[in-house]
Each structure stands twice: as C-alpha cells, then as structure tokens.
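ok trying again, last paste got cut off:
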Amino acid sequence: MSMFLQPPLKISIRAKIVRWITGALIKRIDAKTAKVASLRRRWHGFSVILRTVFGVKANRSAVQGLPALWMQPRRATDNKLLLYLHGGAYIMGNIATHRQFVSFIAREAGVRALLPEYRLAPEHRFPAAVEDAAGLYRALLADGYAAEDIVVAGDSAGGGLTMAMLLALRDADDPLPAGACLLSPWLDLAAAGETMTTRAERDPWFKPQDMPIVADYYCEPGQRMNPLVSPVYADLSGLPPLYIQVGEEEILLSDSTRAADKVTAAGGEVELEIWPGMWHVFQMFVYLMPEAKIATRKIGAYIRQVLRVASP
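nice, full thing came through this time. structure:
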C-alpha cells in the first residue's frame, strides 16, 4: 500500500468557512425524524444552479433505462471513459448534484465521463443499486468500450457502490476496469470502524449514532455486513488498482484505512491519501476552497496515468 499524508499545511480561510457553514447546516438534521423526500428537495433543489465547467459539453441520455449525463471535454482522448457513481447515502443524489464536480474531473483527466442516476433507497433497496452499477458497466463494454479504457469513481455511498460493483464483476468473471477512485467511501454500513469513536467529536458533518438509521433505508439490519453492502468485509483480492482520498477528520476514515490494508494484504495495489483538516467529500467544493481544487486535480492526474492519457 502506498499511503500519502498530505503535508499539514495551514488550512485555508475558505476551507474553514465552508466547514463551519456546511457543518452547521448538516448537523441540524435529525436523522430520526428527517424525511427522505424533504432531504432530496433541499439538496436536489439547490443543485440546479450547478453547471458543467467551461470547456465541457453535456448531453442527457439514458443508459440501461437510467437517466444519465454524458460529458465531453473539448480535448478528450477518444475511447477513454470515466464512469462516476454519485454519493448521497444511497437515498439522494442525481445528475444535478454532481455534474459540476464530475465535469471538472473529466476536464482535468482529459476523458469523456458518464454520470448515471442509479435507483435510490428506500424505494429501491439493496441490491438494486449494485445491479444498476454492474449493468451500466456491462452496457459500456457492449457498446465497444474496452475494460482497460474505463476508470470507475464515486464519492461516499458512490464510493462504496464502486467497490461493490467491482466485487460483483470480479465474482462474475467480467473484465474489470483499469482502475477505480474512491472519495471518502462508505464501506462499512455496520459502522464498526475505530474512527466512529476517535473522530466523533472532530467530524463537522456526521454523528456515529445516525449511521445505522441511514443504513436501514438501504438494507435490512442483518445485511449490513454483506460484502456487497459493506465491502470492507469482503475478500478484496483480484481488484484493479485503487486510489482513495479521505479526510482525516471524518468518522468514515477507518472505512478507507481498513479497506486499503485488506487490499494490500491480498496482494493488490492501492494508493491512500489522508488529508489533514478535511472532512467528508471535501473535494466537492472545488470552486470554493483551494484544498478541494488540488485534490480534484490529483484525481484527474491519476485517471490520466491509469488510462495512459497524455498531459495537456
């Protein structure tokens, strides 16, 4: 395992402001009483103002019957693709919430990107999302993309879904993508990691006691340690190279460190970056704080490296 701890540079003023504002908003949500429909209206409604970045064209379509957004950077390399699975605790997230962020990654990586909307819980519980993700990937192969020309990425639940999809594909003997990028992945819905305790007072967004409540929207309590629900409990051998970015302040930190340790023990390749002072999926604030822009550019550089795309 290659582990990189971002140098403890002084946290930017912008990052401190974003952390305070978002933390104040998110921690006001009571997981016990919050309604999924209300949470979706707030996040999805606000996100309509987000647009793809300059130099990237976006076209709506449908893949495997699911809404999707194709993003084409001006100087994209032919036949190279990023498949991005959005986060949102398996209950939220769509094209609008992630199109700006994913278009930035696509532009940095110099590749085309596909951002689909998989089925969400609680209307569609496990294994619907895993089936959708695997089906989307197989549809890309059927359309002529080579496995070695695809990188899969995802944040939070989308990071967990990325890992679950890789496991499902591996177990079905499907050709695996060239690599995967996981951003603050939610890999343990049983919430058994040590940072659920050690980061409980430091995480600006999440409370450990809320995690099982949210998990129950997605799966039955007895399924929380199913490897396709919580990949940290899976056999992690035979996977493509992984690149993980996670914030040092988040309660999900040990999801990433435990998964990275298991991949390494199984003989796999993983690069883990822990970012001091950062929180859950801080990269999403790419236009608000320099730390997010640096991290996202590193994601683009990693995709270029894995897919053998020349630097601009």
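cool. The mean pLDDT is 95. The first helix runs from residue 13 to 26.
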